[in-house]
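User: I'm new to structure prediction. If I give you an amino acid sequence, what do you actually give back? Let's try with this one:
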Amino acid sequence: MLTYPLFLCLLIYAVAFATAYLLKPKSNDHFITNNYETIDGLRGFLALGVFIHHAAVWEQYLQTGEWKTPPINLYAQLGETNVSLFFMITSFLFISKLIHQKENLPFSWKQFFTGRIFRLVPIYYFTLLLLIIVVFYLSNWNLYTNWVDLIKSVANWALFTINAIPGVNKYPDTSIIIARVVWSLPYEWFFYICLPLIGFVLLKNKPHWLTITISLIVAVGFYNVHGISIKHVLSFSGGAIAPFLLKYQVVKFNIKHWLVSAVVVLSVFSIGLFNSAHQLVCKAIIALIFTLIACGNDVFGLLKNQSLKLLGNISYSTYLLHGIVLFITFKTILVGNEFQNLSSNTFALVIVILTPIIVVISYLTYIFIEKPFINLGKKMLHNKTRQK
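Assistant: Good question. You get back a string of structure tokens that encode the predicted 3D arrangement of the chain. For your 388 residues, that looks like this:
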């Protein structure tokens, strides 16, 4: 197992930060900003943490052939806690949109779902294309199944694996190619599907009955096909606390005070005492950390750093693509007798070297795939609004 976990994590974050600093453009035109700048910085930490988590998973996978959570709490929590925080971010941002919607204006559900499609689908389909190319490369470009089954398997992946996570071309455990990160995406979509139902409770101007009906039918269908885990529902619930605290100005103390930042840091370290983020006490601590950050605490100014915000903007690409980089490295590049049984120090060095590569790849896919499609979606919605 990777040794000196805290030192290694800090080193990887430092290398990623330095890479982002060098990539940071003079203009911010390429990047998305919102009213909650601490959230952008937080995203940067989270995606890199998931990468570190899967690096530790890969080391033991190469040694044992088992893909499972690392036994060291820090590596385990960098996966489970960080995804929980990603769910909290989703809940926070969109529930905030609902409760800040002007009473005399209806919430545009068409605009919301169009925006989500243009935001999430293009880079995901690019990742899926890379996954298929890797599968066929490892299959020597041979077809090991019939065309119908191949199309069915790709279709399941194209639908964000809501129904199933099948092997493509009968390649064993295809999901490992992307470090199995796809499991979280159906929960993101489930939250979006349920948002009109949440809006029915929160909005003064209620969603149209047809929107509510479609949302309910799709949500029930999702539950029947995919199922729902309460531990992830708790994560989304944890993210819903801060919007109401901000809306009704419940927090009366200086949220940016250094003592609050100290509480956040101590709470982060306390998570390392748990071997799973899904223990109820641990989940409550994670919700506390997120709530303080979402309400404006910048952790001694760190979360407002521009380089960290860049890492936050490219975090979706990082989340989707880091697994492919790890897979290609350990299944196609570092193969052969000379790379058998790498020492922990050598393996750690490889991970550090991969860090700037992943940051640069994520930066490029954000600039050339994510952002153009985000702009295209906005342009389409703007043109339709003008036509009306």
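You can read the tokens as a compact description of the fold. Here is one thing that stands out. Residues 5 and 23 are 27 Å apart (CA to CA).
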